[in-house]
Design goal:
alpha+beta, 6-stranded antiparallel barrel
Length: about 425
């Protein structure tokens, strides 16, 4: 049996020596050293493409790359499928991002939005403090870079981090990023991106990664930019992550095209779910009944019933009743016309959730209690709706967020919500609303 190539062994030895030397430095000095080692390329070349993984071939390449990287790191045992596929990859609130170089998948990560099933890391870390701060959360998970590109000075990793930041802030309506990483990797997130640990000591045994230790950390994107600016201000362009994230435009990044201001990009058709979670793996067969019920509640469309794991008929009927009140995540600019004394005022808000009977909106300042009025909502670049609403309550964690009852809606709004209820993947929404 041939051993690993000499150069690869030497690179590994040198990395371990550098890591050990860095660990001996004081924390602030160590972090400054890491920031000085950054090398960001504004022009990585047309061979690099960063996009959402959507097709079976793209998803399979991402899951295969992830499997090989996790097996190599000891985070999982090899499996017959040659892919690392988890329940979270099945959710419509998960987006798998990928980097290709010359047509080959060389990097991947997944962003997992909150849902009834939650996050992988919430099994070992308390996330209630973060939830109480308001704003959507997303866990950064399933990160892997092909071994040929791990020692290229961030040639793949930094564009992926930029893609993650742009997707989270521009498409995914995310305020809080969460991570659970091996202790030997946490320094990168702390020093370069200013993640803060959820607790000081690592968890010694994290079952999601084969029992390896894990450190949980959090980044509030609302507060991250001032930190990035203060620490990177004045640095050369190739070492200035603030400039790289906020000012550099990479044509390599292909954000999903949306006609409407939705915030999720579901890609799992019934056929893809069946292929990855029934045929190639045993993920669905190994779910407990509670998780099966939750999955049916998420995918309560007739086209999905044949591929989802079985649940008792009475539980399926309960899920269908719950669907009447299903809420959808959106990010639609809007204005609400309210009466203020003898005058009427148009106040800017953003509709962040909608359903058949209501909506949730975020304003710059808390709206008056019990306000009623007319809301003009931009559903997309070309579509606008008009509704009469009445405030039911303010959010308990954020007084600038209010829940409204829709008293009367125009046909444009009703057709839009109906399309959200019946769309399978994100491309379906445009087809369902094309003739609105």
């Amino acid at each position: 049996m041939r051993g690993p190539p000499f150069r690869r062994v030497m690179r590994s030895v040198l990395r371990n020596l550098a890591r050990a030397a860095g660990a001996a430095l004081p924390r602030r000095t160590r972090h400054r050293v890491y920031r000085n080692m950054i090398s960001c390329d504004d022009h990585p070349g047309p061979e690099l493409v960063l996009k959402l993984a959507e097709s079976r071939e793209e998803l399979e390449a991402c899951f295969s790359l992830l499997h090989d990287a996790y097996v190599e790191a000891g985070f999982m045992q090899p499996v017959a499928s040659g892919m690392r596929v988890t329940l979270y990859h099945a959710l419509p609130t998960t987006s798998t991002l990928m980097a290709t170089y010359g047509g080959r998948v060389v990097g991947t990560l997944s962003l997992i939005r909150d849902s009834g099933i939650g996050f992988p890391m919430q099994k070992i870390f308390d996330l209630d403090v973060i939830r109480c701060r308001g704003g959507n959360m997303a866990e950064v998970s399933a990160l892997a870079v092909h071994r040929r590109y791990r020692s290229t000075g961030g040639r793949i990793l930094f564009p992926m981090m930029k893609f993650m930041y742009e997707y989270a802030t521009r498409c995914f309506d995310t305020r809080h990023l969460l991570i659970a990483v091996n202790p030997r990797h946490i320094a990168m997130y702390e020093s370069l991106l200013f993640f803060r640990r959820l607790q000081h000591k690592p968890v010694e045994h994290y079952g999601f990664v084969n029992g390896a230790p894990a450190v949980g950390a959090h980044l509030d994107l609302k507060r991250a930019l001032p930190l990035l600016r203060s620490h990177y201000d004045g640095k050369p362009p190739d070492k200035n992550l603030y400039r790289y994230f906020t000012q550099v435009e990479l044509p390599n990044i292909v954000l999903p095209k949306r006609r409407y201001f939705t915030t999720n990009d579901p890609v799992m058709t019934p056929e893809l779910l069946d292929y990855f979670f029934n045929f190639r793996t045993d993920v669905f067969r190994n779910l407990d009944q509670r998780t099966r019920v939750q999955l049916h509640a998420i995918y309560d469309l007739p086209s999905y019933q044949r591929v989802l794991p079985w649940i008792p008929p009475e539980l399926a009927a309960g899920n269908r009743m719950m669907r009447r009140h299903e809420r959808f995540s959106v990010l639609c600019p809007a204005r609400i016309l309210v009466e203020a004394g003898q005058r009427k005022r148009l106040l800017p808000v953003k509709v962040i959730e909608c359903s058949q009977s209501g909506l949730r909106a975020r304003s710059r300042q808390p709206l008056p209690e019990g306000v009623e009025g007319r809301v003009f909502v931009e559903l997309g670049h070309e579509d606008r709706a008009c509704l009469d609403v009445a405030m039911l309550r303010r959010s308990h964690n954020d007084p600038r967020t209010s829940v409204f009852k829709v008293k009367e809606a125009d046909p444009v709004w009703l057709k839009f919500v109906n399309a959200l209820q019946n769309a399978v993947v994100h491309h379906d929404l445009e087809e369902a609303t094309r003739f609105m």
